[in-house]
Amino acid sequence: MSVFKDYKKEIMDAAHNERISLALSRAIKSYRANTNQALKKFPHTIQMAEEVRQIKEKAIGEMEKLAQQACAAITENKGKAYIAKTADDARNIIDGLVGKGKLIVKGKSMTAEEIGLREHLEERGNEVYETDLGEFIIQKLGSRPMHILSPAIHVPKEDVAELFSKITGEKLPADIPTLVATARKLLREKYFKADIGMSGANVVAADTGTLFIIENEGNIRLATGAPPVHIALVGMEKLVPTLGDAYKVAEVTWRYANYTVPSYVSLISGPSKTGDIEKVTTYGAHGPADFHVVFMDAGRTSLAKNPILRQALYCLRCGGCLYECPVFAVTAGHFGDKYFAGIGAVWAAMLSEDVEKGAAVAYTCLTCGRCKIRCPMKIDTPEMIVELRRLIVGDGTQATPLS
Amino acid sequence: MSKGTKGLIPPGLAYIADNFTSKGNILGASKGSGAKWAKDLGLPKRSDTVFFAGCGYQYSAELEALSSLIRGMDKSRIGAESSMGIATFGKKLGVDFGGVYRRVAARGGGSDAQPLMDAVKVLGKLGVQFGYLAEDEPCCAGLLHYVGLEKEFSENAQRLYGKLKSLGVKRIIGIVPSCTYTLRNLIPHSVPGYDIEVKHFSEVVREKINSIELRFPREVKVVYHDPCQLGRYLGLTEEPRQILRAIKGIELVETEWTHGEWATCCGGGGGFEAVFPELSQILAVNRTRELLETGAKMIVTNCPGCILQLRAGLKELKVEDVEVLDLAQVIAMAM
C-alpha cells in the first residue's frame, strides 16, 4: 500500500496548490469556449467522429496487419520501418540508430514519454532538446508533463520567467511574448546543429506509410526537417488503413483539441529526395536523408483483446476528457501516470504493467462519466475503470457491462 | 497485468465492502434500523409496486457521522499514514462506529429521512398505489460493482432478485439514483430473465405532475444539480426540471455550462469520499461554488450523497442563506 500512500500524498499536495486550480480553471474555460466555437463552425465534425470511431474499432482489431502494411509502404518509400514488441525493443532499436554522443532535437510525444525515451537517450550520453515550448519548460524544470497537449499547463508565467532567467543568465520579465522569443532563440541553432530529429505521430496511414503530425508551434516541422536523420516512434494504436481514414482521424483530433484548424499538419512518408539533376533520385535534398519509423506494440495488441479495456486504444489524445474531469481540475496530471485521469489508469496498469500505480489511479476516478460525454470516440471510462478494478481485485468473474 | 489482489482496494472502500458482507448494508448499521422512518406511514408491506428507499437516505445520519469522522482522520494525516482498514483504525483511535450508529439510529429517522417521507406523501397524493418492504428491503449493493467485487455483486444480485420475486414485487419506484441504476441496469446483467420494471421517482411524478396544482410557499430562485447517476447514467435530466417548472413560485435557473449531461460531479462519486475524503470535500466546494454563481437561494437535487456533499460545500463556504433540498421535499412543500 506504500505506492498508494505516496500517490495519495502527491495528489493531495496538488489539490492544495492553488496555482494548479487557478491555471486549470482558466484553461477549462477557454477549452470549452474554443471547442464549442470550433464545433459550431464545423458541425460535420460530430458525425465525422462517429465515422472515426468505426475506423478505430476496426483498426484496433488488426493492428499487427496494419503495422506490417505500413512497414512495407515505408520501405517502398525508401524509409526504414521496424516493429517493436516491447518498450525495451523500441529503446534498443532507437539506440542502434542513434548511437552515443549525438545532439537530438525532439518534438513532443506521449509515446516517447511512455517509455522514458528522453531520459534513456540522455543516460546514454546524448544531448536531447525538447522543442515544444511546454515540454522544453518541463524538461528544464526537471518535472513531468501534466497534460497530454499542454504539458506545462500548471506552470504560471512568473515561474517560466524565473527558469529562463536562470538559463540565459539575464533577468527576464514575466512577459509571455518575451518568454516565447527566448525559447525560440535558445532552440533555433539546435535544429541545424542536430544530428537527429525525433517525433511521434498523431495518426498513420498504413496504405501509404504516411505519418500525420499535428502542431501549432512549427517546432516539429523544423525538428523533422532540418536534421539529416528523422526517427519517429509511434504506438501501434495510431495506425488506420488508408490516407483518407487518417485525414478524418486528424481533423477530429484537432477539432476536439479545441482548434478549428491547427497551424501545421505535416504528412511524412519517406526521406527527402530529388530527381532534379538528370532524373537521378538522390536522397537528403533539404530534409533528412534517413527516415526511420518504429511501430511499438508494448502491450497494445494484448490490451486489444479485452472487449472493454480496448476502448483505451481508440483514444485520439485530443485531451478533451481532461478538461471535464473534476479531479483533474484540482490535481492536473498528478491524477495519472504516463497518461492521465481515468483512462490513464488503464495505461498504467495494462501497458506500463504497474498494477499498484494503476490501482491507485483507478480508485481516484469518480466514475462520474463526464469525460465520456466530451470524448469524440465516446470512450466509456467509468466502464473501463470498473473493469480495471475488477481485474485488480482479481475475482475472476465477468464484469457487468454498463452500457 | 499480473494477478490481482484485494489488498489493492483502498482502505475506506474495503471497509464499506466488508460492511456489506457482514451487516447487509454498506454502512455497517444494524439491520432493520433503516426502516424506522416509515413506521407511522401505514404503508402496506406487500404490493406489486414497491417504493425502494435504499441505504443512502435511510442511513444518511450514519453516513454523515461516518464521513465527518473519515474527513477528520484524513485531515489529521493519520489516515494517509495508515494502511489498515477504517474499522481497525476506528478501534485504535477508540472510536466506536457501532455506537455512532446506535446514537443516530436512536433519533429515529427524523429530518434525515425527510426526503423519503415526502416522496411517499407525493406519490400518495398523485394517486400512485405502492408498498414498502421495510426491513425486508434488500441492499442493491451497487457499490460492490464499483469497487470491483463483481463476484460478490453478482451473488447478491441473484439473492436480491429471488427475494423480491418471493415477495411478489413486479415494479420498483426508486428514489436514490445509484440504487435505481443498479436495479434497472446492472442487476439484469447478472440475473438472466430479470423482469422487474424499475422507474425513478422523478419519472413517476413527471407522468402525473399536471394533474395537480403546485405552488411553493414563497417565491424562490432554484438551481437544479444533476446527480451523475440520474443525469448521465439514467439519462433523466429533463424530468426533474419539468417538475420544478410546474411549481408556481419557483424560478428555475441553470449554471452556465455545467448542467444536464455536463453537470459537475459533487465529488462523492463511486465511493470516492471514502478513499479521498479531503479531496472529495474540495470537489464539493467547487461544485457548490458553480451552483451559487447562478444566484439561486435553493439547490435542489435528488441524491443523498449529493445532498451531503453540497451541504458540506455551503458550510465550508460559510453560506447560510442557501439551502439544499431533495426534489421530493420541494414537491411536498408545494402541495
Q: What's the main sheet of chain A like?
A: 6 strands, parallel
Termini separation of chain A (Å)?
Answer: 32 Å
Measured between the Cα atoms of the first and last residue of chain B, the distance is: 57 Å
**Strand content range of chain A:** 5-15%
Tell me which CATH architecture of the largest domain in chain A applies here: 3-Layer(aba) Sandwich
Query: Would you identify the regions of chain A where 5 or more consecutive residues have pLDDT less than 50?
Result: 398-403
Rough shape of chain A?
globular
Number of helices of chain A: 19
**Proportion of residues in helical segments of chain A:** 40-55%
Largest interface: A-B, 52 and 50 residues
Mean pLDDT of chain B: 84
Q: Please give the largest β-sheet of chain B.
A: 4 strands, parallel
| Structural class assignment of chain A | alpha/beta
Q: How many structural domains does the protein architecture of chain A include? A: 2
Helical element count of chain B?
17
CATH class of the domain at 212-334 in chain B: Alpha Beta
How would you characterize the overall build of this protein?
The complex is a heterodimer of chains A (403) and B (335). Chain A is an alpha/beta fold and 403 residues long. Chain A has helices at 2-15, 18-41, 44-61, 63-76, 87-98, 110-114, 117-123, 133-141, 157-168, 176-193, 219-225, 243-256, 300-303, 320-324, 328-331, 341-351, 355-362, 370-374, 381-393, and strands spanning 80-84, 103-106, 127-130, 196-199, 203-205, 210-215, 229-235, 239-240, 264-268, 273-274, 282-283, 290-296. A 6-stranded parallel beta sheet of chain A has the order 1-12-7-4-2-3, sandwiched between helices. In chain B, helix 3 packs antiparallel against helix 6. The longest helix of chain B has 17 residues, at 150-166. Chain B has 17 helices and 7 strands. Mean pLDDT of chain B is 84; it is low at 77-96 and 101-111. Chain B has helices at 11-23, 54-58, 60-75, 78-81, 86-93, 97-106, 114-125, 142-147, 150-166, 177-190, 201-208, 228-233, 238-245, 272-275, 277-292, 304-316, 327-334, and strands at 49-52, 171-174, 197-200, 215-224, 248-253, 298-301, 323-326. With 335 residues, chain B is of the alpha/beta class. Chain B has a 4-stranded parallel beta sheet with strand order 5-4-6-7, sandwiched between helices. A 3-stranded parallel beta sheet of chain B has the order 1-2-3. Chain B has a domain at 212-334: Rossmann fold. In chain B, 50% of the residues lie in helices and 11% in strands. The interface between A and B is large, with 52 and 50 residues.
